[in-house]
Amino acid sequence: MVATTTLDESAPERIWQATRPQTPAAHWNRGVVRPVYSNVRSILALAAFFTVSAFSQDAREIVRRSVELDQTNWVRMADYTWVGRSTERHFDSHSHVTSEHREAWETLILDGQPFERTLERDGKPLPAGERQKQQQKLDKTTARLGSETAEQKKSRAADYEKIRRRERAFLLEIPDAFDLRIEGSDTIDGHDVWVISGEPKPGYRPKSRDGAALLKIRGKMWIDKTGYQWVRLEGETIKTISFGLFLAWLNPGAKLVIEQTQINNEVWLPKREYVSGSGRIGLMKRVAVDEEITWNDYKKFRVESKIVSGDPKE
Fold this sequence. Notes:
Order of helices and strands: HHHEEEEHHHEEHEEEEEEE
Number of helices: 7
Strand content: 35-45%
Helix content: 25-40%
Shape: globular
Radius of gyration: 20 Å
Distance between the termini: 9 Å
Largest sheet: 13 strands, antiparallel
């Protein structure tokens, strides 16, 4: 089997979400609860584009510039493979750990689409039967993509682009939705950064549902002074955020830390993410969880051959 990747601008939007492998276990991030933290995570992460210049540059113009840089990162990410690891803990009402789950996985980009392959579960390699299923899943995906017509590829790319644009549309609201302030300077991983805080702007009228959620979050960003890339983000919910027609909600005080790192002096990619918070599903079930995800072993590759499926034994 030979896999391929293409540097497709329509592909990268869901790559980070695709770093989470799908497993049969009923963890907190399944069903209704997963969108709660997933959406908040995306909102908080994208809030990292609050950038302000120490030389009194226009903050809104800097934000737009940062969004463009972020787009470039997403596009270039499609030219890499990587390994992700997660540790997920659940807590009872007394903050005692009731369960812990760990996973490791590899992410590939196949014809512009992310594909994840589970490597370990709770510190142990997958049994032979599960490894075979993972290989069969990869073969099936490569065969499907390899047999697409040019028209089908174009249609798939268009659908992906439509979703990406819709989910990122609220970024345009960020410059107007927040009061931004430079708190000082710092150094992170050798990068000189601005320390920038953002508070929801009173009286702002959001243009979308995601824009409304922004007004319930405050954050602090560490922004590289040279390249205007965000190196670290800390966010906190200051009001309850509801999802799924109020079937689930996230309490104030939920916290997020996201870190990025520069790879090959050409792109900034995720390094670490930590989420901690509590909420409810429906009227009764309380959920308290923290989760840490790390990404490493980024490898750049270029394959020009077509995707073909084959027997893994051959």
